[in-house]
């Protein structure tokens, strides 16, 4: 059973204490102890399983998948188009978030021999942690004999001009209960484009205010262009170069997850030196996230949040992983780093050899819009900026029989970026239906430093979408065909 802080009979000393029981915290605790007698406590202030399980990845993908299938079906002659059933869609979301119960995760943790301590944890000195229960009980003092891991995740950044409006954050969008007739989304990143997709499907009139001139900056420009076209096709009013400079709302207050947070919102919007007023039932802030390190007691050990996220060395007993570390805020990346760091903690305790880790591991990411965007490694621009001499190959997503067969209106683009010196892949981006499934081959090619001439002998099945790889390799200069 999970321990409520403070629990008089709970052990107060553990080999490893993990602050934050998101997917990443769970993984690091598991990898730091598995197959040994080492003990670990996971201190969790909300739900074990964290943001991804209840408020982020799981609910958003539970909402998006039926929509993508319905849209594909609408463009596949031979089957009757399924209709979106909002109530059933939200019910699917509720199932996938286990109705906001973490009982299953607690069972898993206990099965893995991990102690769950409920409450807010903070450092109070070297290897010393204090936990205060959600009801204010405590504090309970815990001691880490070997390591403390900060896996406290991240919080949304809310621009000052919107704070007084009690805006929706991504939690409300994924947990939507009261579907607004009109919604303004501020931001043009991943949360914004995914949320716009499901909110539009639920029948909301969505306006996106994007301060830059493109969506999904940081990815290949063609990715943002495809998604812009798709969102506009769904009826989303995407306004580029538009910034919120002020706003007001009557009765702005927290009313609960996914419920309207007050009366109508009035926003002052600046674009092209013009000011307009925009009204809506709700405003969703999707302007990025920052590591949650303000309230973990770093000052008690002479550290600041910047010391943790800056990439410098931390004391040997302290680690940061996942969103809290300032690295790519993605579940799979955090879990990868958790496996590496967990294994290092275990190795230090047992004398086992540490697993070798390559210097440069590329970060993959999938944006689950329709079409999907899947990218790994460097964009062409980033590769050039990093000093690589590169060549790219680009083909339409419909360029192979298998990818064209996926639906009759296939749009999208596939591109690889190849370093001319090493003749290996340094980046790849696929935009198209089910593009996520093409990505891992690129990740393997980069991690394995496979020369592109060798990839020509990796034969994709016919007619599968992976035949796009053949098209891409054929587009490269002939000189690269020789090893
Ligand atoms: C809408 C949305 C959709 C997303 N979709 C995807 C996706 O499809 N794929 C993907 O890879 N990534 C996705 N992400 C990113 C992903 O959610 C995060 O990268 C991931 O949750 C990070 O995991 P974490 O364990 O580091 O942090 P979290 O999941 O945030 O977990 C941290 C935990 O620590 C607890 N905590 C914090 N401070 C304390 C404290 N002092 N004491 C005790 N407990 C504490 C919190 O309650 C929380 O449970 C999405 C993000 C959002 C916002
Ligand atoms: N499918 C996935 O893997 C997935 C899905 C959702 C979120 N995530 C993760 O969550 C993280 C956070 O997502 P996000 O969309 O909030 O952040 P983001 O960094 O992807 O996008 C933030 C957007 O807000 C804009 N912005 C920033 N400050 C602003 C301001 N003051 N006013 C107006 N616009 C502003 C930026 O220009 C950008 O368009 C992402 O980095 C991503 O790693 C992943």
UniProtKB/TrEMBL annotation:
Binding site for FAD: 61, 121, 152-154, 323
Domain Pyridine nucleotide-disulphide oxidoreductase dimerisation: 363-468
SUPFAM superfamilies assigned to the protein according to its UniProt record, in alphabetical order: FAD/NAD(P)-binding domain, FAD/NAD-linked reductases, dimerisation (C-terminal) domain
Limits of the FAD/NAD(P)-binding domain: 14-300
Cofactor: FAD
GO biological process, one term: 2-oxoglutarate metabolic process
Keywords assigned: FAD, Flavoprotein, NAD, Nucleotide-binding
Record: residues binding NAD(+): 187-194, 288
UniProt xrefs under Pfam families: Pyr_redox_2, Pyr_redox_dim
Disulfide pattern: 52-57
Stated family: Belongs to the class-I pyridine nucleotide-disulfide oxidoreductase family.
This protein's name: Pyridine nucleotide-disulfide oxidoreductase
Lineage, uppermost ranks: Bacteria, Bacillati, Actinomycetota, Actinomycetes, Micrococcales
């Amino acid at each position: 059973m999970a321990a409520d802080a403070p629990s008089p009979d709970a052990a107060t000393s553990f080999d490893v204490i993990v602050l934050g029981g998101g997917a990443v915290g769970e993984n690091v605790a598991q990898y730091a102890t598995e197959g040994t007698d080492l003990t670990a406590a996971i201190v969790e202030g909300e739900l074990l399983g964290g943001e991804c399980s209840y408020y982020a990845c799981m609910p958003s993908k539970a909402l998006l998948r039926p929509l993508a299938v319905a849209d594909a079906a609408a463009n596949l002659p031979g089957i009757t188009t399924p209709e979106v059933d909002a109530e059933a869609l939200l019910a699917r979301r509720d199932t996938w978030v286990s109705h906001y119960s973490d009982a299953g995760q607690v069972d898993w943790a206990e099965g893995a021999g991990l102690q769950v301590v409920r409450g807010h944890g903070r450092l109070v000195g070297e290897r010393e942690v204090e936990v205060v229960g959600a009801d204010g009980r405590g504090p309970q003092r815990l001691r880490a004999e070997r390591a403390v891991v900060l896996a406290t995740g991240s919080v949304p950044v809310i621009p000052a001009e919107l704070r007084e409006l009690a805006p929706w954050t991504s939690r409300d969008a994924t947990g939507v209960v009261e579907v607004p007739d009109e919604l303004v989304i501020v931001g043009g990143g991943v949360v914004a484009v995914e949320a716009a997709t499901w909110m539009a499907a639920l029948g909301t009139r969505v306006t996106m205010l994007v301060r830059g001139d493109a969506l999904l900056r940081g990815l290949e420009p063609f990715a943002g262009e495809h998604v812009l076209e798709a969102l506009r096709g769904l009826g989303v009013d995407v306004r580029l170069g538009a910034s919120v400079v002020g706003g007001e709302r009557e009765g702005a207050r927290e009313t609960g997850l996914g419920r309207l947070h007050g009366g109508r919102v009035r926003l002052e919007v600046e674009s092209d030196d013009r000011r307009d007023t925009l009204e809506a039932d709700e405003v969703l802030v999707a302007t990025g996230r920052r590591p949650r390190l303000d309230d973990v007691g770093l000052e008690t050990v002479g550290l600041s949040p910047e010391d943790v996220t800056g990439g410098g060395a931390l004391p040997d007993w302290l680690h940061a992983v996942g969103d809290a570390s300032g690295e790519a805020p993605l579940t799979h990346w955090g879990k990868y780093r958790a496996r590496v760091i967990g294994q290092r903690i275990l190795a230090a305790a047992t004398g086992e050899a540490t697993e070798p880790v390559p210097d440069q591991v590329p970060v993959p990411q999938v944006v689950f819009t329709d079409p999907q965007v899947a990218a790994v490694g460097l964009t062409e621009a980033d590769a050039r900026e990093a000093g690589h001499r590169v060549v790219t190959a680009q083909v339409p997503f419909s360029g192979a029989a298998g990818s064209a067969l996926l639906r009759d209106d296939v749009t999208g683009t596939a591109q690889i970026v190849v370093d001319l010196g090493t003749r290996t892949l340094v980046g790849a981006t696929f935009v198209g239906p089910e593009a996520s499934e093409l990505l891992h081959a690129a990740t393997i090619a980069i991690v394995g430093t496979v020369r592109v001439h060798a990839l020509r002998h990796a034969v994709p099945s016919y007619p599968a979408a992976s035949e796009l790889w053949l098209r891409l390799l054929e587009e490269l200069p002939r000189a690269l065909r020789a090893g």
